[in-house]
Design a protein that fits this description.
With 233 residues, the protein is an alpha/beta fold. It has helices at residues 3-11, 32-37, 46-49, 69-79, 85-98, 115-121, 125-137, 159-165, 192-203; strands spanning 59-65, 107-110, 140-141, 145-147, 170-172, 181-188, 209-216. It has a 5-stranded parallel β-sheet, sandwiched between helices. A two-stranded antiparallel ribbon has the order 4-5. Bound molecules: zinc ion.
Length: 233
């Protein structure tokens, strides 16, 4: 590191996006301590998946618990603060979580934003994540799933409203690729969005669909999601 850069870092240290502690020059936007200690959820999300009557998804996995403030700050940074470089930092971390389950012919499918929302934000955080995981594992990313209906944000909606909100929101603009498909999204809340996407892929002939999320709402792993257990149309 140059003397000038070292001095600048000493005077104006970068702070970890998650915990707010000073970052060392070799760290990215998140300190190594947070990367190692942010709380994990059950990697198979059994509590959540067990409550679904739908069998659209063959496997669901998430990394961190969205119930923890540090994780919410990371997701917020990825989604709203334009820290698109953050995805490149998170990709390898998420890749390590899922690599044991992935095969080299698997294809990653980002959960799409509506074009209007993507234009406003400048990027789709799920696509950035999918590309970063794809780069880390040498997997293809397919962006043929599109959001055709502008839906209100899922934030603040209950499980049933979430399912209603995304009904008919997704379509395909291309033939589904060969191989197993993995949907990629930033947060798994009730699973309504992932299930709606999986249903579209299944109807188009996909035989195997999984889902990967950076974080999952741990509170939803228990009884609270039973209300969501109505089959999708
Ligand atoms: Zn930290």
């Amino acid at each position: 590191m140059s003397l000038g850069r070292a001095l600048r870092h000493w005077l104006f240290p970068d702070l970890c996006l998650a915990c707010g502690e000073r970052l060392s020059p070799s760290e990215g936007r998140i300190c190594l301590c947070c990367l190692a200690t942010c709380p994990r959820v059950d990697p198979e999300c059994r509590g959540l998946v067990g409550s679904w009557t739908s069998r659209e998804l063959n496997r669901v996995t998430a990394l961190w618990s969205y119930d923890e403030e540090r994780v919410r700050r990371i997701v917020h940074g990825l989604k709203y603060q334009g820290f698109s470089r953050l995805a490149r930092e998170l990709g390898p971390v998420l890749a390590r979580q899922v690599q044991g389950w992935l095969q080299e012919t698997d294809v990653l499918v980002p959960v799409p934003l509506h074009p209007r929302r993507e234009r406003a934000r400048g990027f789709n955080q799920s696509e950035l994540l999918a590309r970063a995981v794809g780069d880390a594992l040498g997997l293809a990313v397919w962006s043929g799933l599109v959001r055709v209906r502008y839906t209100r944000s899922q934030t603040g909606l209950g499980p049933r409203e979430r399912t209603e909100n995304v009904r008919g929101a997704f379509q395909l603009r291309d033939r589904v690729p060969e191989g197993r498909l993995w949907l990629v999204d930033d947060v798994l809340t009730t699973g309504a969005t992932m299930l709606a996407c999986a249903q579209v892929l299944r109807r188009a002939g996909a035989e195997w669909v999984g889902a990967i999320a950076l974080a999952a709402v741990q509170g939803n792993m228990g009884e609270s999601v039973r209300v969501f257990a109505a089959p999708l149309p």
